[in-house]
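Structural prep section.
Before we set up the soaks we want a predicted structure of the protein with coenzyme A in place, mainly to decide which crystallisation condition to try first. Input record follows.
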Amino acid sequence: MSTIRAPRFADTAGVYRVCFETGFTPERIAEGRPSPELLGQVWAGPYLAFAPEWCRVVVDTHGVAGYLLGVPSTGAFERWAATSWWPPLRAEHRIDDPALSPADRETAALLVTPPASPPALLGAFPAHLHIDFLDRLRGRGFARTLIDDLVERLRSAGVPGVHLGVGRDNTNAIGLYTHLGFAELQRDDGTVWMGRPTTS
Ligand SMILES: CC(C)(COP(=O)(O)OP(=O)(O)OC[C@H]1O[C@@H](n2cnc3c(N)ncnc32)[C@H](O)[C@@H]1OP(=O)(O)O)[C@@H](O)C(=O)NCCC(=O)NCCS
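Run finished without errors. Recording the tokens verbatim:
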């Protein structure tokens, strides 16, 4: 049985594991044994710390199998992270450390220039989300359930829209998001930015 619930502090390692396993291909891992934590510290940890009540994990007998991480106000989240989340991590993981694997070097660069949404999107689509599932959870309807639930909670809170960034090569996720009511808003180098109003 799989249960959907808000994350607890004790779920952090499980969330980071899902982030690692969905974020790196086996080839990338074989290339240099990336840290099991650093990717999660960039892409998952700040959401669990800033707004756990907006996030959801899907847990089964083997642990955390997937998550949706979200914030209602991307601007507030990015301002908080700039002062409270990135500085201590930046001090700990220096990109010039020769011991870093190639993958971790790329992740550590994000501590210097943290992930950020295009400011132009934040008026109509102030919220944003990330969603990742291990293989065993995919294709069972959980993405629709989690995204529709987030959209409904945002609508109730008066937030007009939610956006996300997806790799332009991730055609599966782009197709799925389109099916779930997201439309392309803009593109930059490697990312397609998509948005869904909460009112339609
Ligand atoms: C993206 C991801 C979270 C989707 O989860 P999922 O379990 O496959 O999604 P669901 O089973 O809930 O599918 C939701 C709907 O999208 C549809 N769908 C799935 N793939 C689709 C595709 N390529 N194109 C169009 N629709 C698609 C499903 O049929 C389903 O439709 P329905 O609700 O009308 O029946 C999951 O595949 C994943 O973790 N992938 C790897 C990591 C990743 O790419 N994350 C996104 C990074 S931006």
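Observations: The longest helix spans residues 142-156.
Flagged for discussion at group meeting.
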